[in-house]
Amino acid sequence: ASVLLNVAAAAFGDPAVAAMSIVTRIMMFINSALIGFGQGFQPVCGFNFGAKKYGRVLEAYCFCRRVAFVFLFTMAVIMFAISTPIMRLFRREDAEVIRIGALALKMQCVILPTQAFTIMGNMLTQSIGYSFRATLTAIGKQGLFFIPAILILPEMFGITGLQLAQPVADLLTFILTQAIVVMVAKELRAMDREMKEKPREGEG
Fold first, then answer.
1. Contact present, 195 and 52 (Cβ < 8 Å)
2. Considering only CA atoms, which of 62, 77, 95, 89 is closest in space to residue 30?
3. Cα–Cα–Cα angle for 46, 49, 52, nearest 5°?
4. How far apart are alpha carbons 134 and 132 in whole angstroms?
5. How many CA atoms lie within 13 A of 87 on its CB side?
6. Do residues 138 and 119 make contact, with C-beta atoms less than 8 angstroms apart?
7. What pTM did the predictor assign?
8. pLDDT tens profile 80-134
9. Segments in 112-158 forming alpha helices (H)
10. How many CA within 13 A on the CB side of residue 155?
11. Which residues, other chains included, contact 61 with Cβ-Cβ below 8 Å and sequence gap of 6+?
12. 3-state SS class at 1
């Protein structure tokens, strides 16, 4: 993904390469904090799933998703507001880098809160052993959707397409992850109901 992004950006000159590299690293820094939070959720999720406490798995997931959304929404608002000053910190003397990077950063900030659902959904499916679905959610952001986006959008929309490639990939990954998590949540609720009904059957 990094190689393809650099190749696509190179078609628009060195300022585009520099700007997109800076924006990518800023977003990676924000997402790394969320991934660290999610790694704290994983053992809670895994232990409760192993103990057949499926209701607790869903409670933990919903709680962590809310916290993650608030965090990312806050970061998105802040980064959107200071996108130009942030770019100036890296390349104060290059107005073109600042212009390209600030707009790309704003575009990614618009989609950033959806990453709460994507990352926590991926953590959920990983922790309960749904490997295929976890793999789909994991490869969507930088592979399944990003690679076609970075190959097609710059050709169609020029530098705007380059700036849009990651937000488009993130949005499509969010939609895919939500579809998967809805199915997983239904399965967990069904298993939770089944576990609660077993003592009643034994009493009968």
1. yes
2. 77
3. 155
4. 5
5. 26
6. no
7. 0.88
8. 999 999 999 987 888 999 999 999 999 999 999 999 999 999 999 988 888 888 8
9. 115-127, 131-139, 146-157
10. 6
11. 41, 45, 120, 124, 185
12. coil
Distance set, CA 61 to CA 48, 81, 137, 185 (Å): 11, 30, 16, 10
Measured between alpha carbons, how far is 193 from 56 in angstroms, rounded to an integer? 12
Both tokens of 46, joined, read 């895994």
Residue 157, both tokens: 């929309």
90-104 burial by CB neighbour count: b if 16+ within 10 A, else e?
Answer: bbeebeebbebbbbb
Q: How far apart, in whole angstroms, are the C-alpha atoms of residue 31 and residue 86?
A: 17
Are 100 and 15 spatial neighbours (Cβ–Cβ below 8 Å)?
yes
| pLDDT per position as a tens digit, 152-181 | 999 999 999 999 999 999 999 999 999 999
Question: 């749904």: which residue's tokens?
Answer: 130
Residue 144 has pLDDT above 70, yes or no: yes
Neighbours of 51 (CB within 10 A): 10
Whole-angstrom distance, CA of residue 28 vs CA of residue 42: 20
- Local structure of residue 90 (DSSP, 8 states): H
**Token pair listed for 169:** 């990939």
What span, in angstroms and rounded, lies between the C-alpha atoms of 97 and 69? 30
